[in-house]
Amino acid sequence: PELARGRTFVRRFIAEARLGQLLRHPNIARTHEVGCIEGTHFIAFEWIPGITILQVFELARETKPPPIYVTLRVITQVARALQYSHELRDENGQRVGLIHRDIAPSNIIVGDNGVTKLIDFGVAKSSMAMVNTVAGEVIGKLGYVAPEYLKTGKCDTRADTYSLGVIAWEVLTGQRLFEAETLDAAEAQRFGKLTPPSALNPQVTPDLDRIIGGALLPDPAKRWQAAGDLAEALEKYADKAGLTVVDEDVAAWVNQEFGAGRQKIRARTADIENDVDLDIEQTFARVRARTEPIG
Q: Does this model's pTM top 0.90?
């Protein structure tokens, strides 16, 4: 309630809702409904039963990294989602200029069905944004922010690709790439020499090192210029290495590593749905009857 009364929060909330209504991609969580009921704004998102990449990383850190084919599939799908969002156009065909700005492990979900989804465009930068970032203000999780953004407070779509590169490095190695508590310390780390993933995981090849390293170059002009370029490189690598898989293969790994907990959650959810005889369309119809348009 306190946040809901904040003008900045509400504007960002509405901007995310408007963006969500445009975003239609299999690897981006869908926005089902947006509105305002008795002064309270809401967004009804797609429910995605699954695990976050943060959980995958924690497993990698505690035991061992996931199979290379899982990481390749997940990172490729996020890269494709970014490619789509970076090229997004509005209802008039105009480029939105969308930059996610918060690509982090907690904002990527691997569904029980093996499909990876990017979530949370709440701090995204675009022509539809209703709140301008203060000059020099950095938004995003410090461990994943691109060096040019740390240095200048300005970024473009290549900053999202950099953040995804950090996530790929961490999942491949089971270790954090950057750990800093201040902007200055974080910036200094970005320009230091990075350990290639293969030095920490023998399953990673030099070719894969080069692909991930291409996303982590400090100079954005030398980095992968588009998330789609990264996705294409990963797909070619997977094909050449015999690591091309389908969503069902990822789902099988998720079930193997997280299955017991996931099955309990699914069982509880099924009980709830059966008890209330949930019909999503009827639910939204009732909500719409009480909803004021926003925007």
A: no
Residue-level length of the chain: 295
Question: Of all residues in the chain, what percent carry a pLDDT higher than 70?
Answer: 76
Residues 83 and 231: beta-carbon distance below 8 Å: yes
CA distances from 121 to 43, 99, 112 (A): 12, 9, 22
Question: HSE-up of 220 (CA within 13 Å, CB side)?
Answer: 20
Structure tokens at 92: 């008039």
Residue among 153, 140, 128, 95 at smallest CA distance from 11: 128
Pairwise CA distance, residues 201 & 76, whole Å: 19
Query: What is the distance between the alpha carbons of residues 278 and 15, in angstroms, rounded to a whole number?
Result: 29
**pLDDT tens figures, 226-276:** 999 999 999 999 999 999 999 999 999 999 999 865 555 454 444 444 444
Paired residues of 116 in beta bridges: 110
What amino acid occupies position 1?
P
Residues labelled catalytic = 102
